[in-house]
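How a chain folds remains the central question behind the approach discussed here. For one protein, we set the task of working out the structure tokens from the amino acid sequence alone. The sequence in question and its structure tokens are set out directly beneath this paragraph.

_____
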Amino acid sequence: MFLIVVFITVVKILYVSDDYGKEVCGIKWSLYQELIKRGLDVTWKHIYNDTINKDIVEGIKACQYTHVFMAHSTINYVECGLEEINDLGTVVFGFGFSDPTYWNLDKLQKYNFYATNSYRVYLESFEVHPCIYFPTCCDISFHRKLDSEKDIDVLFYGIGNHHQHVPVNFRQQVIRELKDKLPDIKIAVYGNGWDDDIGASPHMVGDEFINVINRSKIGIDISQSGVALGRRNFEMAACGIPVIARPSDDIVRLFGDNIMIWETTDELIYKIRDLLNNQDKRLRIADQLYFYVRENHNISNRVDDLLYFLNGHNSKYFSTSISHS
């Protein structure tokens, strides 16, 4: 069974976002591209700060947008507000891609509808405001398997001193411990903001991004509890390598038994050695995760859910029908 979305009036979306993650098909860019693929009239509006001002409102009025998608972590209205936009016949949909970091219920008042990256935030919100659980995902038009030589044992990529991680050296502590206790294993780190002794390579994008993932035997996530769900869990899986992730409500809900998790560095070290020493097991886990993620957690799945949600809350614009194949 598949979903067909039929539009009964013209839908015009102003997509307000930034370029973060564009060169690796992060969810902000993938969502924009997928909406276009669905035949929607979508206009990109790059936002250089967190401000929605009179100029943007005048643009909404002039172009008669039916929807504004705020695909940005935080938004502040300056000399305008949600009510003014609604008076133009336009609804505002906010996306909390960084939830639950900096989350508070007051954010909901800035939007008519809200999509959150965090299941905890969804549980706090859906009874008081129209809200959908909209976790990050992969983009199978970009994230893919290559027939690459596996010359990297363990891969982590991300910002070394990320502001969401307290203390900020958590990731660096983990990498240092792995390198100290696994001196015979090649551990590759990519990203900005790492101390010199880590030996990290620069932030990677485009073809290099896909190539490095495919050269790796194992991918790991290093995230503190209570921070936003990392895209890397989906991206690495969609490229065909097994992932050892950090436990969270979102990871358990989205992956179940399809992904390995670690809580202590000793547990992480044990699982790394176990996978490296057992190629058949490693390939079996990688294949299971690969097919599961690409089928269930790609941007097409997310947009299906989004359009179904909008149909239920805004039937003036959307109508859906179900067809059987």
Residues 2-137+298-315 form a domain with the Rossmann fold fold (CATH 3.40.50.2300). The radius of gyration is 21 Å.
